[in-house]
Amino acid sequence: MRGCGAAETVHAHAGGRNRSRAQAKRVRRVVIAEDDADIRSLIEIAARRAGLEIVSTHGDGMSALAAARASDPDLLVLDVSMPEMTGLEVLQQLRAERDDTRPRALVVSASADEPSRSAGELAGADAYVTKPFTVRDLTSRLSDLAARQ
User: Fold this and answer.
1) Which among 43, 50, 115, 141 has the fewest CB atoms less than 10 Å away?
2) Rounded to the nearest 5 degrees, what angle is found at the Cα of 110, between the Cα atoms of 50 and 56?
3) pLDDT band at 55 (very low <50, low <70, confident <90, very high)
């Protein structure tokens, strides 16, 4: 069984020094965009439970895009349907501006059909969650994405 205490040591060869797990793992930063305030609050709870630092939260795509550009987060949580710019448009714009896969992106949508999931994948989403969701499931998905960094 793996421990989770800060005193646990990882015997990694890093210039001949051992590093604690806490030193080896940095906190992942997330920008959240969801126009429904209640759902946005649930996403915030899940992000905190996943050990993420919330950089900012937004109710529209334009402000989320500006925040992602300014803060260079590790993760994005984007609602598909938002005012001014959809979450998929935000993601497509960020992917077009960068030559890597950061930030990782989790797309949240009320649509569970295959065309919607495919659209999320084509936009560059790393994960797709349908509403309604549980905080537990969302926490798990966010933890998985953060671990892939």
Assistant:
1) 115
2) 40
3) very high
Helix, strand, or coil (residue 106) = strand
Distance CA 73, CA 70 (A): 9
Give residue 74's domain range.
Answer: 27-147
Residue in 32, 35, 33, 42 with CA at minimum distance from that of residue 133: 42
> Quick one: average pLDDT of 11-15?
34
71 in Cβ contact with 56 (< 8 Å) = yes
Q: Is residue 95 part of a domain?
A: yes
Give yes or no for residue 94 having a pLDDT over 90: yes
Residue 45 contacts residue 69 (beta carbons within 8 Å): no
CA-to-CA distance for 78 and 71, rounded, in angstroms?
16
